[in-house]
Amino acid sequence: MIRTKRIMSLALTCTMCLGLGIQADASELNETREKASQLQNQKKAAEDEKASLAAQLESIAADMEEIQKNIEAKEEELTAKEEELVQAKVEENNQYEDMKKRIKYMYENGNVQFIEILLESQTIADFLNKAEYISTISEYDRDMLDEFQAVVEDVEQQEAEIQKEYDEMGDMQDELISKQEEVSTLVSEKEAQISELDSQLGDTNAKLAELEEAAAAAQRKQSESSSGYVPNGGGGSVITGNGTFTHPCPGYTYISSYFGYREQPIPGASTNHKGMDFAAGTGTPIYAAASGTVVFAAYSGNAGNMITINHGNGLTTTYMHCNQIFVSSGQSVGKGQNIATVGSTGNSSGPHLHFQVEQGGVPVNPQNYF
Length: 370
Hints:
Layout: H1 2-120, H2 124-227, E1 255-257, E2 260-261, E3 272-273, E4 276-279, E5 285-287, E6 292-299, E7 305-310, E8 315-325, E9 332-333, E10 338-342, E11 352-359, E12 362-364
Antiparallel strand pairs: 1-4, 2-3, 4-11, 5-10, 6-7, 6-9, 7-8, 8-10, 8-11, 11-12
Helix pairs in contact: 1-2
């Protein structure tokens, strides 16, 4: 009797110790989950900022292309105005030279010409008319010279305005190049930040997987100690069932989250887990658990990239958070066929496969089918 009491007391003490250990592990587990969630949020924010910067770069590139077209157009205008100005100056100079020749001739032969005009004139009115003709020739030269000079000045002014616009466009182009370099630097910094967050998230998820495995093992030990049950084996990778399915991730048998109730791993995740989570790295092959027809293969909100296969008789399997999908809706697949790779798309704490089985539209424990 005394011995029995001692055994019961020892069992109770062990159970209490296990309970305290589980509480301590749960605290660290929650902290690690919170850290993973924060890192995931930081990564998403950095990716959003990078996307915004990339959009800025595209806008800057479009502006630079437009500015370059305008600069080329202004260069053509400048060339045309330069040619027009050269021609106007040539005409101005020709008119000036012609005028000088006529003035020189009039001065050198002025008196003789006026005497001849006087002798040839029948009346004073005739003489005055011929003298007025000589004056008119000189006035015509002056008017033509003034006109050509005005044309030259107008062309020079137009050329100056075009040059000013050309210079302003050059300044705008320089500013855009500077802005492009600045934004490109920011994009590189964001890429480095995302890479660092990826590394931290990977380490945190690895630690989280270890803690979840330890917590699950401790919980089983506590249950076994309370019930007096001694298991044949343990660990998060034990899967038993009727053998209907092949493993969707062979070699990755660690279950990071079991079917049924669980603590919320990350914000937005359900506490009623409708499947099993197999921890595996990004890019790990995912295989069809059984043959059937693909009824869904696309992105689906929190589930990320998702595949659902109908195996007949109301039985379906679903594969969530995939990185890549290799099948399409309506396609027939065979048991063990590579249909996707593991990823962390949708609402996910890290790379893993959420494997879900439904019978008649109702989620059931996948362990019953392995």
